[in-house]
Structure formats: structure tokens, C-alpha cells
């Protein structure tokens, strides 16, 4: 089977082209010898089966970013039968140098000039035949979004696949330096690529007068992101409820009767442990899918790049850039997709610092706990202010974390941002991308969360003597650590459940106190003084969000050590804040 590398600069429509060629038949796999996942797919070209590997977007084969290092490592380690290079037809003066580097490496190359529709709109003309003659490689002009020029593209791909020579490794020692490639590109483009004397004023420029306004830009961005989060939950929550109801029906109508003959302990393990783990994972899928569809729309439209530009100066003081702020804001909807979204960052250290900060965003699951406790501890007029203060606390903790770790994870990459014109995203591309993201998350999280839920079940069901379970005994054992912050043993057990998912924290408290969730407020108000309850709430806000977040962090960092360090840091910070609050209240009395 032949193997093609798909190369291109960021924002050239490379992923759209890949999806158009391969449809939904993608697979994500770890490349041998690397710590990154690459997307690949098999397709039939010229009567031969070809594996097309989508490599990260790069600007320069001699650069030093993480993505450029990955591409070099792949090209050096593996032999390829051809390279398909995607360039933006409107920006060949800046993008053709990469093509010259790829050609110089010795790889058989097909150059795809994408976005032919935008070039036509701007009055940019390209003589593909003349350019191909100068480069010594076939050149086709297409629009992947509209599938213009598709017969020519298929013919060129079939011709590349039909070449009888053996696969070759890239000779990167022959690749010209960036400045040399730029000079060569200018000579190659002379007479083949023409810009109009004056570019037409497009809708993009008119819209950017508002969206990139020095005073209105950020407020408008917050409004748009608030609408995105609202839409995510307006659309996703009914779907999530439907999936949850369907899973409950399966449990009540199928699993419970089928397992009724088994011993009670084994029934509980299978239903409350294994099935609960499966259900927890599956109920995440609808909201994640909706979120990724909407985020694909925002990113592919070109607006996400503008948001990063607007917030870059503020975030630079914390060792982050504008993309880090966008990911932090995403975390207020759900930490998991925000962590997965750090893939837009090219440098590893920058991604790690952003991933450390995201879990402190007050996600919707923790918001439920905050609203519940604020309602039982304070009056209706006081509760909204308490929630606002706790929101502010999460921002402060996130800023402090970035400040503490910015030297360790300081990125060296200059934040070079291309602001593309506004584009109408393709529905098929958005759905394909969202399905791929959710599928990748479920493959990892299913095993991870399932193991965690079973572990918690064992802790709460295995007796430890004197009528106590292992979980309660663990709470008692932790009393020297938890007593100084006012968290009693039964609340420690609830925190164990909260480590799995904050959605089940209130339910676990109801089980612990032997009441329904509707009657939990009165019991907690009677059992706890307000200082203990607030200390517990502060700890809940700051410590580990959920196992799904930890799983996503491990998946994206490829490091258990980093994920464990993040957990340890959040628990330490939660304890210190709760200690300062609880002891401060007692000293003030």
C-alpha cells in the first residue's frame, strides 16, 4: 500500500480537503516514535490503495516549533510515495516557499492551490500550468469547500498514485533556508501569479470595524461566547437528558431484571459501578458533540483568530497568549472540550500551561453545587452576590496558577497570527470534525471513568469493621488533614464521588445523609454551620474538576506525571484556600 503525506500551512483548508477526499473514514493513531496522534485514512487512487496521513500545519520545514519538529521527524523516519501540499491561492507570495522546500527534499509532490473561489473574488489570477512548469511539479487549482476543480485534482492524485518508483524519505539536508526559499518563490511567481492593483473592500473589513474595535471588540466577544455557551446547553441539555433517560430505561427495564438472580453485592457492582461508569461517559457525548460543532463554526469562520488577537496583550503578562484566554473561557462551559481545544497551540509548553489553568474555570457541573449551597446558606438577595464572588475566585486562582508556573512552562514561540477572511463553514466538515473529537474522547474516557467509578463503589461497599465502609474509614483517616478546614468525614466521602464527576456530588450527599436530593438542603443547613459549608464549597470549586478532565489532560499532554502534578496542585491550592477561610472565620469570632 502506498503512503502519501498531506502537508500545508495553517488555515489553508487542508483539513477540509482531507475530509472531502476521505469522508468519515478517518482513524486517529499514535505515530511510531512520536508522542502525537496523527489522522490518516485509506482511499483508492488510480486502482491502488493509498494511506493519506494528515500532518500538522507548518510554515517552514526549517522552523523550530513543536509542529514543525513533528513534521520533520515523520518525514525523516518514514518513506512516502508522494506529498500532497495544500496552499492558499490568495497568499502564494508567503506560502510558496514551503512548496519549494518540500520539492527540494526529494519527495514527489502534488501542489494543490486551494480557495480558488476566494482568489476569484479578490481578483487574484493564477496560471497553474506556467507555475507547474517552473516548479517541475503538477499544480491544480481547486476550492475544497465548493469542490471546484475536483476532476483535475482526482486525475492528478491518480497519476501520483500510479507512479512506479519506490517510496523515499525526505532529504531535509537539501532543504533551503527560509530566506532562500522566499527568493526562489518570488522568481517562480513572476508572470504566474497576479494581484489586482487595489484589492476590493470585502464584507470582512466592514465587520472587523466593529469586531476588532479597540473598545467594543472584547465586549462583543464576551457576548458571542455567552451565546455559544447558551446554545451549547440549550441544544445539548435536552439531548443529554434524552440519553440519560434512555440509559435509565435500559437499566430499569433490561439490566435490573436480567441481573436479579445474582447476589445483591454483585448486582450493585454491575449496576452502580460498571453501568454507572458507562452511563457517565455516554451522557457527556451530546453536549460535547454540540460544543464541537459550534466551536468548529466559530473557528472555521475566522472569528476565533480575532478573539485571540483581542486578548493577547492581557494574557502575555501571565505567560499565555490570546488563545489561552479563549480556552479558559471555553472551560466555563465544560473543562473537557476546552482542554481538547488547546490543540490549536503549536508549542507544547504553551499548551501545558494553558491546560494547568483551564480546570479552575467554573464549569456548569460545579455551578450546580455553587447555586445549591448559596441557596441554602444565604438569602435570595445575598445568594447571587455569593455566586459572583465565587466566580471571581476561580479567575483569581487561574491567574495565580499561570503566574506561578509561567517560568517553568514559558513558551518561546512568537505568537504569529493570521487573521483570515470570514468564511461560511461547511456543515459536513463541522459534523465530521465534531464526531471525530467526541469519538477520540470516548475511547479514552470510557476506560478511565469506568475504573474510577468501580473504585469508588468498592470504597463505599467494602466493610472496614465497626459497621463502617472503607470510604468512611478513609474519611476518618483523613481527619487530621480535613478537620483544620472544617470538612467532616461524611463530606470527605462526598468529595470522593465528586472526584469522579461533580454532577453526582449532591446525589452522594443525599445517599450519605439518607434523604432525597429535594430534602438535602434542610439537612445540610441543620448539620453544618455556614463556615464549614463554605469551606467545603471552596474546596469543591478548586480541587480536581472531574475524572473526565484528568483523562483529557493526560490524553493531550501524553504524560501521567503532568496530569498527576495538576491534580496535586489543585488539591493543595484548594486546601490552602479552605484553611485560610475556615481559620480566618474562627479567628474573627
TrEMBL record:
Q: Where are the transmembrane segments?
A: 215-236, 274-296, 326-345, 352-379, 385-405, 440-460, 491-515, 536-554, 560-582
Which UniProt keywords are given for this protein, alphabetically ordered? Cell membrane, GTP-binding, Ion transport, Iron, Iron transport, Magnesium, Membrane, Metal-binding, Nucleotide-binding, Transmembrane, Transmembrane helix, Transport
Sequence positions that bind GTP: 8-15, 33-37, 54-57, 114-117
Main localisation: membrane
Q: Indicate how the chain sits in the lipid bilayer.
A: Multi-pass membrane protein
| One family name in Pfam for this protein | FeoB_C
| GO annotation, cellular component aspect | plasma membrane
Q: What is this protein called?
A: Ferrous iron transport protein B
Q: Which Gene3D superfamilies match?
A: P-loop containing nucleotide triphosphate hydrolases
Q: Molecular function terms in GO for this entry? A: ferrous iron transmembrane transporter activity; GTP binding; metal ion binding
Q: Give the PANTHER family listed for this entry.
A: FE(2+) TRANSPORTER FEOB (PTHR43185:SF1), FERROUS IRON TRANSPORT PROTEIN B (PTHR43185)
| Claim: Metal-binding is one of the keywords in the record | yes
- Tell me the superkingdom of the source: Bacteria
FeoB-type G domain ranges (all copies): 1-163
**Organism encoding this protein:** Chromobacterium sphagni
Cross-referenced NCBIfam families, in alphabetical order?
feoB (TIGR00437)
> Binding residues for Mg(2+) 1, per the UniProt record?
22
Reply yes or no: does the keyword Phosphoprotein apply. no
Where is Mg(2+) 2 bound in this sequence? 19, 23
Amino acid at each position: 500500500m502506498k503512503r502519501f503525506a498531506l502537508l500545508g500551512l495553517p488555515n489553508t483548508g487542508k483539513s477540509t480537503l482531507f475530509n472531502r477526499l476521505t469522508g468519515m473514514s478517518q482513524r486517529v493513531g499514535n505515530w511510531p516514535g512520536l508522542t502525537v496522534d496523527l489522522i490518516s485514512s485509506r482511499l483508492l487512487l488510480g486502482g491502488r490503495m493509498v494511506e493519506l496521513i494528515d500532518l500538522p500545519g507548518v510554515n517552514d520545514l526549517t522552523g523550530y516549533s513543536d509542529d514543525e519538529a513533528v513534521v520533520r521527524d515523520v518525514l525523516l523516519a518514514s518513506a512516502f510515495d508522494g506529498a500532497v501540499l495544500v496552499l492558499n491561492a490568495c497568499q502564494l507570495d508567503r506560502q510558496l516557499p514551503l512548496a519549494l522546500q518540500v520539492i527540494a527534499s526529494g519527495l514527489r509532490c502534488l501542489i494543490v492551490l486551494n480557495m480558488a473561489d476566494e482568489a476569484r473574488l479578490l481578483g487574484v489570477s493564477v496560471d497553474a500550468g506556467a507555475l507547474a512548469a517552473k516548479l517541475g511539479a503538477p499544480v491544480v487549482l481547486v476550492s475544497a469547500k465548493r469542490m471546484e476543480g475536483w476532476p483535475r485534482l482526482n486525475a492528478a492524485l491518480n497519476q501520483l498514485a500510479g507512479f512506479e518508483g519506490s517510496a523515499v524519505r525526505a532529504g531535509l539536508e537539501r532543504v533551503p533556508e527560509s530566506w532562500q526559499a522566499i527568493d526562489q518563490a518570488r522568481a517562480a511567481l513572476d508572470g504566474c501569479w497576479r494581484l489586482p492593483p487595489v484589492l476590493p473592500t470585502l464584507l470582512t473589513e466592514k465587520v472587523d470595524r466593529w469586531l476588532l474595535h479597540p473598545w467594543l471588540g472584547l465586549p462583543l466577544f464576551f457576548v458571542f461566547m455567552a451565546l455559544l455557551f447558551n446554545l451549547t446547553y440549550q441544544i445539548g441539555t435536552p439531548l443529554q437528558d434524552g440519553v440519560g433517560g434512555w440509559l435509565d430505561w435500559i437499566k430499569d427495564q433490561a439490566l435490573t431484571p436480567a441481573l436479579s438472580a445474582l447476589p445483591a453485592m454483585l448486582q450493585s457492582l454491575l449496576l452502580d459501578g460498571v453501568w454507572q461508569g458507562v452511563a457517565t461517559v455516554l451522557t457527556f457525548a451530546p453536549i460535547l458533540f454540540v460544543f464541537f460543532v459550534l466551536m468548529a463554526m466559530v473557528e472555521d469562520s475566522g472569528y476565533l483568530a480575532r478573539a485571540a488577537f483581542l486578548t493577547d496583550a492581557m494574557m502575555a503578562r501571565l505567560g499565555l497568549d490570546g488563545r489561552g484566554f479563549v480556552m479558559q473561557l471555553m472551560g466555563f462551559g465544560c473543562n473537557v472540550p476546552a482542554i481538547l481545544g488547546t490543540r490549536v497551540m503549536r508549542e507544547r509548553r504553551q499548551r501545558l500551561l494553558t491546560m494547568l489553568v483551564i480546570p479552575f474555570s467554573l464549569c456548569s457541573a460545579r455551578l450546580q453545587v455553587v447555586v445549591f449551597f448559596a441557596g441554602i446558606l444565604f438569602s435570595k438577595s445575598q445568594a447571587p452576590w455569593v455566586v459572583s464572588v465565587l466566580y471571581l475566585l476561580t479567575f483569581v486562582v487561574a491567574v495565580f496558577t499561570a503566574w506561578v508556573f509561567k517560568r517553568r512552562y514559558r513558551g518561546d514561540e512568537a505568537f504569529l497570527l493570521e487573521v483570515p477572511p470570514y468564511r461560511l463553514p461547511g456543515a459536513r466538515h463541522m459534523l465530521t470534525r465534531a464526531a471525530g473529537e467526541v469519538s477520540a474522547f470516548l475511547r479514552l474516557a470510557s476506560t478511565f471513568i469506568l475504573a474510577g467509578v468501580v473504585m469508588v463503589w468498592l470504597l463505599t461497599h467494602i466493610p472496614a469493621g465497626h459497621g463502617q465502609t472503607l470510604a468512611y474509614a478513609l474519611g476518618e483517616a483523613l481527619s487530621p488533614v480535613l478537620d483544620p478546614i472544617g470538612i467532616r468525614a461524611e463530606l470527605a466521602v462526598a468529595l470522593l464521588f465528586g472526584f469522579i464527576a461533580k454532577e453526582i456530588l449532591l446525589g452522594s450527599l443525599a445517599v450519605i445523609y439518607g434523604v432525597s436530593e429535594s430534602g438535602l438542603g434542610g439537612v445540610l443547613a441543620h448539620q453544618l454551620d455556614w463556615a464549614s459549608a463554605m469551606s467545603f464549597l471552596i474546596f469543591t470549586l478548586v480541587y480536581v474538576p472531574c475524572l473526565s478532565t484528568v483523562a483529557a489532560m493526560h490524553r493531550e499532554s501524553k504524560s501521567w506525571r503532568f496530569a498527576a502534578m495538576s491534580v496535586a496542585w489543585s488539591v493543595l491550592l484548594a486546601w490552602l484556600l479552605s484553611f485560610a477561610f475556615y481559620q480566618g472565620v474562627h479567628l474573627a469570632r
